[in-house]
Structures are given as structure tokens and as C-alpha cells.
Amino acid sequence: MLYLAVSRTSPSGSAMTTICYEIVTYRTKDAGQADMVRDDARALLARQPGFIAWTPFQGVDDANERVDLVTWADHLSARVAAQLVGNAAEFADFRGSVASVASMARYIATSIDPQPVVADSGIELGRFRLKPGVEERSMRAAYEAMVSHHLRHQPGWRRQHLVKLRDDTFVDLAFASDRDRAQAICTAWAGNADCDHFLSMIEPISMEFGVIV
User: Fold this and answer.
1) Which of 27, 74, 119, 122 has a Cα-to-Cα distance from 179 of 20 to 30 A?
2) Run of H or E including 137
3) pTM of this prediction?
4) Among the three residues 75, 104, 133, which one is the final residue of a domain in this structure?
5) Which CATH number is 24's domain given?
6) Which of 53, 67, 47 is nearest to 19 (CA)?
7) Each residue's pLDDT tens digit, 114-143
8) Is 114 inside any structural domain?
9) Is 77 found in the same domain as 28?
10) Is residue 14 domain-shared with residue 84, that is, in the same domain?
11) Is 130 exposed, middle or buried (0-12, 13-18, 19+ CB in 10 A)?
12) What are 47-79's pLDDT values in tens digits?
């Protein structure tokens, strides 16, 4: 296994905030060739469910010294991806570029933002109201289940917030790596049981997609 999953849970133990970090320190055989295959590997891994980000580091004094920090929505997604990277044929070039692995370790991040939202990140703004007879607490429970069980496992998902406005309407703010991923995640609602349950409680008003500037 090339990567080691690192779990992070909120003080309340909520599954909504469990983040997995994969950290490995290693040395490559040829820096230039390793750069190309690492970029290819990042693009492949970004398609996997639960992928949030892969931050690559390179040594200042020695370009062959590397650290990869990969962030996942949950531990299971990290484990599945680790098996893929370690065994799948499409990652063979990446594995072949590694001369040696120096260390693997587990860490819990208590202060850094595990789901960065930066310029060019995508955003979906969905405004809605409750259907007659639906209690807010029931809708919020369905919303949390939908995000926890389905949406946060989609590639490119960053974070999601539910906002209540003064007129008792609500806005779902969903952040993604870019606008295309925000739209793809919205499309991924179709046919999912948790999404359907949430949708059965609301009356949509509007939906818009944008980019953070």
C-alpha cells in the first residue's frame, strides 16, 4: 500500500466532519519524469469517490525528495484508493517512478482547513422552502444524511452549508473544486435514496452555479 489513511473527527464525533489524510515521504528516480507521472496519477485519482485534494510537495534542495498529502472525505474512500494506487495498471508508471519510501505516519489536523475553498472553486446555490407540514428538524436531518452518505463522497466535493433566511426560505451552498464539478455533483443527486428523501420535503425556488473570484 503506497498511502496511509489518517482520520479526523470533530469533537462531537459527527461523521459529517471525518476527513482522511494520506501522507507519504519518498524519493523519486528522475525528477522530471516523476513530475509527469505524478500529474497523471493525480488526474486519475481525482475521479475516485471521496477525493478532495492531492497536494504535491518537492524538496527545495533535492527535487527527487517528495511528499504527497492526499485528502479524502472518509477512511473507506482512502483505503479503496490506496489499493487502487498500489495495484492498478494505470498507476504502474507512478509506482515505477518511486525509488524508495522514507516514511509513513498518521496525523490529526486540529486547525487547518481540510476542504479548502479558494479562487476558481465552484459553487452551487439552491434556494428552497419547506413543503406544507414538513418540520424543519426533519428536513435538516434528511439534509445531513444526504451530504454525509452521498454528496461528500463525490469527486471534487469541498464543503456544504445550509443557510436559513429571514423569510424562512433556505439556501443550500455547495462548494466544489470547480464549476463543472459543482454541476456534476448536482447531477449525481438523481436516483439516490437520500437525495430523493430530502427532495420530497422541499419546494425548489431557484438554482444557480458560479465560481469564487
Assistant:
1) 74
2) helix 136-149
3) 0.55
4) 104
5) 3.30.70.100
6) 53
7) 556 667 789 999 999 999 999 999 999 999
8) no
9) yes
10) yes
11) middle
12) 888 888 888 899 889 999 999 888 887 778 888
